[in-house]
Amino acid sequence: MSWATIADWIGAICMLIGAALALIAAIGVLRLPDLLSRMHAATKPQVLGLIMVLTGLGFLFRDPEVIGLLALVALFQMVTSPVANHMVARASVRAGQLDTDRLLVDELSGVLAASKDEPRGAP
């Protein structure tokens, strides 16, 4: 077996694992009961699945320019996904769309109660 054949197999396996993780994330978003659980299912396996797909593409293309671009995509996904989901969670807490009975720790209720007079942005 040559290096190209081994790299193709590794790339295919990584892409299959990434697709499976994306499927698990989609099932989690559909099946889990509340917003925070759905957000966890949407971020953790989805980001890891994307990184696996990008790794598979890197093994399939084997071009340094493409691998650099794929690494940038993975880096930006890993940086922006947690921030975006934090903002969605905070907005849902402020809007009262969160099931507080399922929370074990609630650190925002005291902060939000103290800042009731501040404008919240768009209605």
Automatic annotation (TrEMBL):
It comes from the Bacteria. It holds the Pfam family PhaG_MnhG_YufB. Keywords: Membrane, Transmembrane, Transmembrane helix. The keyword Transmembrane helix applies. The chain crosses the membrane at residues 6-30, 42-61, 67-84. Coiled coil: none annotated. The keyword Signal does not apply. Belongs to the CPA3 antiporters (TC 2.A.63) subunit G family. This is Monovalent cation/H(+) antiporter subunit G. It comes from Nocardioides dubius.
